[in-house]
UniProtKB/TrEMBL annotation:
Family matches, as InterPro entries: DEAD/DEAH_box_helicase_dom (IPR011545), DNA/RNA_helicase_DEAH_CS (IPR002464), DNA_helicase_ATP-dep_RecQ (IPR004589), Helicase_ATP-bd (IPR014001), Helicase_C-like (IPR001650), P-loop_NTPase (IPR027417), PRTase-like (IPR029057)
UniProt-recorded Gene Ontology molecular function terms: 3'-5' DNA helicase activity; ATP binding; DNA binding; four-way junction helicase activity; hydrolase activity
Ranges of biased composition (kind: Basic and acidic residues): 29-41
GO BP term (any one): DNA repair
Name of the protein described by the UniProt record: DNA 3'-5' helicase
Domain Helicase ATP-binding: 117-292
Superkingdom of origin organism: Bacteria
Length: 782
């Protein structure tokens, strides 16, 4: 039997949207459409000051949540003392909670009430697919309070991001809900939180999906929660499905969690970004377990009336950056500028900062404390924009975010809808601008190349694990040719499939049979390719852009009679010109044309090299000095030129590249100037690399030592991880003739990725008598 599906087109007239943190306590609109954070008389209402709002409006965050705290925490036990437990009075209780939460004029819409009733009365498993700002968090916080008041256990919320957890814990605590979180950022608090859960002192426990397979949590805490929880909530539930745009292997463990739940424990899964295929997959996973019944699916319209969508065609990266530098201050309020790569985020942030704009880079490589501070800066309007990768997405809640700009398109329209959904949640208007680039598809291809590995590689992971002796991920790396991130992904998938198990000390094999679902992986690859084509179609379409995105999400609110949004550039005409001021463009090009990126040396040999027959361990004492790269392939400035150079036929190095290399050498703060230069033999670019080394020798009056040649029959090294790459490079080169010149030697290469080729080549030169080796490469991927 399939899921029961209920659709709702939108809010009840005059009703309250219970706007989300994803819902609680956001600055919202009066009945006349204007926003407010303070009282009509201009004074700000703090948490202790009563405040009566106009009917049908929201109240500021502090008033709403303080009111709920006063209403629900009046009894010593923390339960809602005066709340009726009769089923017939349940809606009155829920309405009262919402009024305390969001103001006297607020009332539940029918679709919100349907979800609450399904959870609290009928103890159903429900999937809610509703637009950002619909009020998903309000539904599960109200349900949690109703269930807790009736003597049920704590609500467990599985939430994917620290930013989202922080927002939800703060909102819950302000609402009088005793909330705690277990995540990678509060390890020292885990034991105390476990005790509080056992003592019944926690109403809502937020956990990251990774915690579900932490051995201590899985074995000591999870069984009691699965038995006694009042409600289980899966936030951002599209992550459960590998058909989803943001699939996360850790989320697959939720299937096991819901299957093990005690009888009658309701489950709520929520998302704003799921098409029909993802909805069906998630609903099926929620329905696992004997006698669970079908999953109730509640879907609503996904139009976002505040968003004004535009696409600008500006092919040259420097011109795109100059356009943003020129127009950033014209965009309303503060916002987010998305880039596809970490290096582009840092380059763009540095450029805009030099142009006087208050911006900062935010990426997955940013320190957690730094990310939290950057989020606070954007929330407090202390920056005009964060220049971010997709690391800033789900969970970030700034209701008055005024704009989202993409310099480079995401690979999926659904991903794009999710990211632009950060904007305009409590504003009448937000600008959403996509500025795609011709290099986008190449970047998408790179990300696609790190998908699930081949069957033989996966089976090798199972083979090297033992049933009794746990092995850490680090210890497995010399045994399996996978990068750390891909190895971790494989282990997580195999764990969910039952072939391996995480225990204290690492991973073990279970001996359970396992099948490689090649057909499914092929279909997933086809689906990703289709999403990419759909994103390109979004860029090209002459129809309504919002209708296009809603169609990609299988929005049930769309019909054959649905008109265009009346807001996007295709509906209303272009609002933004692609023209760029020549002076501004000149300034940007001067900044982006500066060559030179630091190349830090490898400092430590990987653990376990002896397993591959290589006697290298500990600190690297015979490696290169710090080096330089002319530019990254993902750079806004040199990236396009280097990609064109490396994608074209092998040829002598162009004069402009030689001059850039000279500029890099001139700015190099080395302790000892090189006295000789040597080219590292290239199988694909011998003319390019050799001619560059020769030209630098001539210009710098260095001795040209020729080429460091590979031994005859030496195969190309294509290994994915460090250990296997090093093993393939041991004794890879012939012993060089340094002509009595110990250097320092400038070692020239075309592209450096992991740094291990230059490390091992430098080791060869040092063992041949070189005093020091200074690496110089034309490009690095990132």
């Amino acid at each position: 039997m399939g899921p029961t599906i209920v659709t709702a087109a939108g809010p009840t007239p005059g009703g309250c949207d219970a706007d989300d943190p994803d819902s609680i306590g956001v600055p919202c609109r009066r009945g006349d459409g204007t926003r407010f954070r303070d009282r009509p008389d201009g004074s700000f209402a703090d948490e202790t000051t009563p405040f009566v709002a106009e009917p049908g409006t929201f109240v500021p965050e502090s008033d709403a949540t303080a009111g709920l705290a006063r209403a629900t925490m009046s009894s010593p036990s923390g339960t809602m003392g005066s709340m009726s437990t009769a089923t017939t009075d349940l809606r009155d209780d829920a309405e009262r909670l919402l009024r305390d939460l969001a103001g006297p004029g607020a009332r539940l819409r029918e679709d919100q009430w349907n979800a609450i009733e399904a959870l609290v009365v009928h103890r159903r498993r429900a999937l809610v697919v509703q637009r950002t700002g619909w009020g998903k968090s309000a539904v599960y916080f109200i349900s949690a309070k109703l269930l807790r008041a009736r003597g049920h256990g704590p609500t467990v919320i599985v939430s994917p991001l620290l930013a989202l957890m922080r927002n939800q814990v703060e909102a819950a605590q302000r609402a009088g809900v005793r909330a705690a979180t277990i995540n990678s950022g509060n390890v020292t608090e885990w034991e105390e939180i476990h005790r509080q859960v056992a003592d019944g002192a926690v109403d809502v426990l937020l956990v990251s999906p990774e915690r579900l397979n932490n051995p201590d949590f899985r074995d000591q805490v999870l069984p009691s929660l699965a038995r006694d929880a009042g409600l289980v909530v899966v936030d951002e539930a599209h992550c459960v499905s590998d058909w989803g745009h943001d699939f996360r292997p850790d989320y697959r463990r939720i299937r096991t969690l819901v299957a093990d739940l005690g009888e009658g424990i309701p489950v709520l899964a929520t998302t704003a970004t799921a098409n029909d295929r993802v909805v069906a997959d998630v609903a099926a996973q929620l329905g696992v377990g004997e006698g669970r019944g079908e999953t109730l699916v509640l879907r609503g319209g996904l139009d976002r009336p505040s968003l004004h969508l535009s696409v600008l065609r500006i092919d040259e990266p420097a011109r795109r950056a100059a356009w943003l530098a020129q127009h950033l201050d014209e965009l309303p309020g503060s916002g987010i500028v998305y880039t596809l790569t970490v290096s582009a985020a840092h380059d763009l942030a540095a450029l805009l900062s030099e142009h006087g704009h208050a911006v900062a880079a935010y990426t997955g490589q940013s320190d957690p404390a730094e990310r939290e501070q950057l989020e606070a800066d954007l929330l407090g309007d202390r920056v005009k924009a964060l220049i971010a990768t997709s690391a800033l997405g789900m969970g970030f809640d700034k209701p008055d975010l005024g704009f989202v700009v993409h310099l480079g398109a995401p690979s999926s329209p659904i991903s794009y809808y999710q990211q632009v959904g950060r904007a305009g949640r409590a504003t009448e208007r937000a600008e959403v601008i996509l500025v795609p680039g011709p290099e986008d598809r190449q970047i998408w291809s790179w990300f696609a190349s790190v998908a699930f590995p081949r069957e033989d590689v996966v089976r090798r992971v199972i083979e090297v694990l033992e049933p009794e002796r746990p092995q850490s991920t680090q210890a497995l790396e010399p045994l399996v040719d996978l990068t750390r991130s891909r190895l971790e992904m494989v282990l997580k998938v195999l764990d969910v499939d039952g072939a391996v198990r995480r225990v204290k000390g690492g991973w073990i094999a279970t001996g359970a049979p396992w099948e490689y679902d090649a057909d499914r992986y092929a279909k997933l690859e086809q689906a990703r390719a289709a999403e990419q084509e759909a994103m390109l179609e979004y860029e090209r379409t002459t129809g309504c852009r919002m209708v296009f995105l809603r169609t990609q999400l299988d929005d049930p609110g769309l019909t054959s009679e649905t008109a265009g949004c009346g807001r996007c550039d295709n509906c209303c005409g272009a609002r933004w010109s692609a023209d760029v001021d020549d002076t501004e463009l000149g300034r940007v090009r001067a900044r982006l044309d500066r060559p030179g990126v630091d190349l830090p040396p490898r400092r430590q040999w990987p653990t376990g090299m002896a397993k591959l027959g290589v006697a290298l361990s500990g600190k690297i004492t015979d490696g290169p000095e710090p080096g330089r790269v002319l530019g990254r392939l993902s750079d806004l400035g040199w990236g396009p030129r280097l990609r064109a150079l490396l994608d074209g036929p092998d040829a002598p190095v162009p004069d402009a590249v030689v001059q850039a290399a000279v500029d890099v050498l001139r700015a190099w703060d080395w302790s000892h100037r090189p006295t000789a230069v040597m080219a590292l033999e290239s199988a694909t670019r011998p003319l390019l690399v050799g001619s560059l080394a020769t030209r630098l020798a001539q210009l710098g009056r260095l001795e040209d030592l020729g080429v460091l040649r590979a031994r005859p029959g030496q195969p190309s090294v294509t290994a994915a991880n460090s250990a296997y790459r090093i093993a393939g490079l041991v004794d890879a080169w012939e012993s060089p003739d340094l002509h009595g010149n110990p250097g320092p030697i400038l070692l020239v290469d075309a592209v450096t990725d992991t740094g291990w080729t230059l490390t091992m080549a430098a080791r060869t030169l040092i063992h041949a008598g070189a005093s020091a080796v200074l690496p110089l490469a034309l490009a690095s991927p990132k």
